[in-house]
Amino acid sequence: AQSVTQLDSQVPVFEEAPVELRCNYSSSVSVYLFWYVQYPNQGLQLLLKYLSGSTLVESINGFEAEFNKSQTSFHLRKPSVHISDTAEYFCAVSIQGAQKLVFGQGTRLTINP
Amino acid sequence: DTGVSQDPRHKITKRGQNVTFRCDPISEHNRLYWYRQTLGQGPEFLTYFQNEAQLEKSRLLSDRFSAERPKGSFSTLEIQRTEQGDSAMYLCASSPVMGISGNTIYFGEGSWLTVV
User: Hey, which residues 55-84 in chain A have their CB within 8 Å of chain B?
Assistant: First the structure.
């Protein structure tokens, strides 16, 4: 079975500082990897995904994540955060060919001015 | 594209009562998913449909839970004889036929259930 561990439940950072949200997964077969963001009182929105190809994937709002197969990680990074990035971030994994997403516990990103 | 719509957004019910949630997926999305999210946790998969066929159910979906998608469009999730442990947010999502492998899964804003 697959599992996802998000190592930090909360990450406070100052505005314009860099941030890294860590995600490690466990799977015996090839997987797809995702980051979702959940703003207060809203549903989950896909931030970015790794399916195949380049191990570095980017979102339209400046986030990026790198798939590291040897370390079974998919950490999310942003070089300079904004107040509007305050949200809960979920890492998720799916077995290739399956339909089920397995989510981590989430990381709450808080941006301080 | 109006997004995935869920109703009601909030429901408070007494223990032992039945509740039903409705989900309207994005039109023409063949696949529809239900997830449950408790406070401080990530969403957990419950079940998914392709058109009207329910193709996978999690062990989390006890016999008190039933989901249907009778015409391959909207779906309902019913919980019978609710228990306090059922208190959670129930998330619905949909995707085109390629599912996770090629297309984005779109989530609704969820239906909050509080069992008192």
Answer: none
Structure-token pair, residue A2? 């697959």
Sequence-ordered list of residues with C-beta below 8 angstroms from that of B13, at least 6 positions apart, any chain? B19, B82, B113, B114, B115, B116
Tell me which residues of chain B have a pLDDT lower than 70.
Answer: 1, 98-103
Q: Which tokens in the block code for residue B47?
A: 């079940």
Question: Is B110 close to A99, i.e. CB distance below 8 A?
Answer: no
And the tokens for A39?
């703003």
d(CA A94, CA A51): 10
- Which amino acid is located at A45 in the chain? Q
Mutation target among B2, B24, B97, B101 for the A interface, most CBs of A within 10 A: B101
Q: Could you give phi then psi for residue A15, rounded to 5 degrees? A: -60, 140
Contact between A4 and A32 under an 8 Å Cβ cutoff? The reply is no
The confidence band for A111, taking pLDDT boundaries of 50, 70 and 90, is very high
Instruction: Answer whether B58's CB lies under 8 Å from B77's CB.
Output: no
- Give me the DSSP letters along A83-113: GGG-EEEEEEEEETT----EE---EEEEEE-
Enumerate the residues of chain B whose CB falls inside 8 A of the CB of residue A104: 42
